[in-house]
């Protein structure tokens, strides 16, 4: 692409493609950053951003261009415009977590993930909209405004990382960070038609991130392609001595390459989606899932039926919500006392529920969640990865009630701290994106990425939203 090709198409290139254009001199980080800032302004109706940092971003872009001219580029993310979910600290900028009461809560230092992006030369465009406190999956945020799905007016982008999903899908940034407690990276990735990774727990530090649930939270990348997820993971991953979940080993994801075939790879398949989800799966998603499995089999994978005997999503989810809301009661006790009107009634109700739970009930909830791990271990003894739809339904209108089964396929990875990738699977008859999820055993992030990358190449299911 030459320097004159300063068009909207540039905004939809992958990070890898943008890095190549920066390296060749076909485009500068300054011009790329200006393009994204223009698009953020032009598509303000999506309400994907809470804070836009134009001046800081342009300064970072200029610094990147200077490094590149001097032969000191820091790697593939140098000069690439990225945005952060607004529960991740960026020094000198408010970390609202989508909560009114935190509107003026200025971060003193960068979260480790922010610092890693800066060290890699990434340009931080701003902070992204999200569901209040990450406690929900629609990004229907009354304090900062609803964030909308670029594929359909009036529809949810998913959540709680809805701003991240919408911004990447609409070409408002090249990649974004999200957080995920029961599916909050993968649900918006699926609804918005992009790729998203919840890494192995502890692989990416959660320090400097406003928590939702101490034992279930994860931070991960959202981007246009699986290869982009790997590039971002290579920067984000690494030990953090101050994070109690931190792992000492990081993956060599810089050498990621999607395999052309999956011969010898064993993939777990759910024969009965409805039974697993405890609800009816959207028929187009069920059909798309079977077609995806056929593609994976054509690539050489062995498809093995699994049922995760003993795992009942509709019985475990209430226990997880109890844990989440008990943690909320601890996290926000002081803030709620000081400024109760700074929280929505729904959020206050969640905190109140957490405050009312007794110790034995909470201990039982933790034990139920811990009990998922041996069930999953038994499955991973027979398969290399577990393949499901990402969600049982596509995006829906805000006036539609959120299905209680929305996390039916995503939550298991949080319970066991496993890596899970959502990759575009196709579209419904109504032209809404759907996602395929690949879940591998804890520590096997590259396995999940490689399988997802192979499917991505075979399916070619990425769809640009109309009008963007």
Overview of the structural elements:
Helix content is 37%, strand content 13%. By secondary structure, it is an alpha/beta fold. The chain has three domains: 14-255, Amidase signature (AS) domain (Amidase signature (AS) enzymes), CATH 3.90.1300; 266-310 and 373-459, no CATH class; 314-369, no CATH class. The protein has an eleven-stranded mixed sheet with strand order 1-3-2-4-6-5-10-11-9-7-8, with helices on both faces. The protein is globular, with a radius of gyration of 21 Å.
Oligomeric state of the chains present here = single chain
Low-pLDDT ranges? 1-5
Query: What's the CATH H-level superfamily name of the largest domain?
Result: Amidase signature (AS) domain
User: What is the chain-wise order of helices and strands?
Assistant: HHEHEHEHEHEEHEHHEHHHHHEHEEH
Give the number of DSSP strands.
11
> What's the pLDDT, averaged over the residues?
95
Sketch the major β-sheet.
11 strands, mixed
Per CATH, the architecture of the largest domain is: Alpha-Beta Complex
Cα-based radius of gyration, to the nearest Å: 21 Å
What form results from the Cα inertia axes?
A: globular
Q: Give the CA-CA distance, first to last residue.
A: 20 Å
CATH third-tier fold name of the largest domain: Amidase signature (AS) enzymes
How many separate helices? 16
Helix content: 25-40%
CATH class of the largest domain: Alpha Beta
Q: Structural class per helix/strand content? A: alpha/beta
For the largest beta sheet, what order do the strands appear in spatially?
A: 1-3-2-4-6-5-10-11-9-7-8
Q: What count of domains describes the coordinates?
A: 3
How big a fraction of the residues is strand? 5-15%
